[in-house]
Write a structure and sequence with these properties.
By secondary structure, the protein is an alpha+beta fold. It has helices at about 25-30, 55-65, and strands at about 5, 10-15, 35, 40-45, 55, 70-75, 80-85, 90.
């Protein structure tokens, strides 16, 4: 698989940049889609409840194969993630319904 990189023992692949349209136009809109992922448990604070893997924003992007990407997919669990300052956040991507 092309562009796969490993971080914290998990394989990731760049997914996409944030959309610059209505759904992800500002910090507030993006923030509504972020979730703490207790399954992955990647936090910078080792004393945080749910901590499993040490996370560092700069180290994550150093390992990433696409430094411009905003959203990454974990191949192991097929979930999307957004690097934050102190944790790797889960990202809930809304899907358009066909009418």
């Amino acid at each position: 698989m092309e562009k796969v990189f490993r971080y914290g023992g998990y394989p990731f692949v760049p997914h996409r940049k944030f959309h610059r349209g209505k759904s992800e136009k500002d910090f507030f809109a993006v923030n509504q889609k972020l979730r703490t992922d207790w399954w992955l448990g990647m936090f910078s604070n080792q004393n945080r409840v749910g901590y499993k893997v040490t996370y560092n924003y700069d180290d994550f992007y150093a390992a990433a194969t696409d430094k411009e990407c905003d959203i990454f997919r974990c191949i192991e669990n097929d979930c999307l993630y957004v690097p934050g300052a102190n944790e790797l956040f889960g990202f809930v991507e809304t899907r358009k319904h066909k009418t």
